[in-house]
Amino acid sequence: TIHKYEAHLGAQISNILKSNSTNNPDETWVFLSTDGAVVGDSSFTASGGVVRDHDGKWIVGFTRF
């Protein structure tokens, strides 16, 4: 099961639940998920991400502040 969160400026966050059981990629696929944030008018930013294999198992993750 994949949880997908979408946010748009000036809109509420929507939580979309999707099943990947019918979309099973072969063993050569990896999935990259990233996210980032900026604090208001300051210069503070943060980002991060994770790479998972075709079974959803964690391979590597990263953060940057």
Blueprint of the fold:
Layout: E1 2-6, E2 14-18, E3 30-38, E4 45-53, E5 58-64
Antiparallel strand pairs: 1-2, 3-4, 4-5
Organism: Gossypium stocksii
Protein name: RNase H type-1 domain-containing protein
Account of the 3D structure:
With about 60 residues, the chain is mostly beta strands. It has a domain of about 40 residues. This is RNase H type-1 domain-containing protein.
In short:
This protein has about 60 residues and is mostly beta strands. It has no helices and 5 strands.
Write a concise keyword list for the protein shown above.
65 residues; 5 strands; two-stranded antiparallel sheet; mainly beta; RNase H type-1 domain-containing protein; elongated; 3-stranded antiparallel beta sheet
Counting copies of identical and different chains, the oligomeric state is single chain
Order of helices and strands: EEEEE
3D shape? elongated
Q: Return Rg in Å.
A: 15 Å
Q: How many helices in DSSP terms?
A: 0
Major beta sheet, specifics? 3 strands, antiparallel
Mean pLDDT: 75
Low-confidence stretches: none
Total beta-strand segments: 5
Q: Within the largest sheet, what's the order of strands? A: 3-4-5
Span of the ends, CA to CA:
29 Å
Q: Which structural class fits the helix and strand makeup?
A: mainly beta
Strand content: over 45%
